[in-house]
Amino acid sequence: MRRHYATIKDIAHALNISVSTVSRALRDTYDVSADTRKLVLEMAAKLNYKPNFNATGLVKNSTHNLAVILPGITNYYFSTVFTGIQEIAYSHNYNIILYVTNDDAARELNIIRNLSFSSLDGLLVSVSSQADSCDHFQEIIDDGIPVVFFDRVAAGIRTSKVMQDDYNGAFEATTHLIANGYKKIAHIAGPEGLTFTTSRLNGYLDALRKHGMPIRKKWIIHSGFTQECGENDLEKLWKLNDKPDAVFAVNDRKAVGAIVTLKKKNIAVGKEVGVIGFTNDPMSAIISPSLSTIAEPAFEIGKKSCQLLLNHIKKKNFIPEEIILPGKLIIRESSIRS
Q1: Ordered strands of the 185-189 beta sheet
Q2: For the packed helices 135-142 and 105-114, what is the interaxial angle rounded to 10 degrees?
Q3: What GO terms are given for molecular function (predicted)?
Q4: For 43-77, how does the pLDDT look when each residue is reduced to its tens digit (9 = 90+)?
């Protein structure tokens, strides 16, 4: 049997107040007292009132639906970001429609081309690592649909963005390796063209320059973000005549790949070759030796990016904001020589 939900009229009748007063109380407008709003909310809960977003959307041009576009969802980082997005969205009675690109630029474009924007209030996006153009997002913004980027952002598009402090995190990670006696530090980087790949690369390079450490182009390898990519990158480094004695990886999965390959070569991780990652994935604490890393504020990034999107939705001329959240150095066994 279909469940019955109360209407605004039912609440008004029960409290003997006008429908307009109930409506304003539910919307928390300035002209309704706190006591009245409290009574309305209590009665709404008692009568099992649910807002009809389909009906209000016709009037307000609002659907209470948000789209989230992610490169992946099984990844610890993105699943944690998504949890933060959910917390804010659900607390404001917004629904979430999730799309996963699997890091495929063609898939990302196909998703955008087939979205029904009449049923969406806005988009939260972390771009594909293969994307070499973000014009499709600019078209959406030009059409009046709010878009907020997080983590992997489109640098050339003027809209709000939420990121971790990639440059300083990389600078701190590389400086930590130097402080522990490593002198020939390689970087297994992410795909070229991504903003945070460039930021982490620049942090690494500037730390080397500041401490007078050698920079070798052959010690910088760009590839994907998987453990397998890390394994392959390490193999390439070990084919060089001048091998590094430490590796800074763009993320923890690649760092784990480097550790796995070093162990296969019977090279003592930490004592002989230092390794540090970026993310603080749970695997970093359980792999042996445990992985030093830069912890990213993934949950907070999700919350802040969703709140920014809601701000854009509520105020169409909202001035874009760029929020950069700091990471934290986590020191474990993989970067300690003694």
Answers
A1: 220-222, 185-189, 246-249, 274-276
A2: 20
A3: DNA-binding transcription factor activity; transcription cis-regulatory region binding
A4: 888 887 766 544 444 344 578 999 999 999 988 99
DSSP string, 187-207: EEE--TT-HHHHHHHHHHHHH
| Ordered DSSP codes for 243-289 | --SEEEESSHHHHHHHHHHHHHTT--BTTTBEEE-SB--THHHHSSS
Average pLDDT, the chain: 90
* Amino acid at the residue 321: E
Alpha-helix runs per DSSP H in the chain: 8-15, 19-26, 34-46, 53-60, 76-91, 105-114, 135-142, 166-179, 195-210, 227-237, 252-264, 283-286, 298-314
Write the pLDDT tens digit of every residue in 156-200: 888 999 999 999 999 999 999 999 999 999 999 999 988 899 999
Q: Which two tokens stand for residue 176?
A: 């930590």
Q: Could you tell me if 153 and 324 are in contact, meaning their C-beta atoms sit under 8 angstroms apart?
A: no
Instruction: Report all structural domains of the chain as residue ranges with CATH numbers, in order of start.
Output: 8-50 (1.10.260.40), 60-163+298-325 (3.40.50.2300), 166-296+329-335 (3.40.50.2300)
Residues in the chain: 338
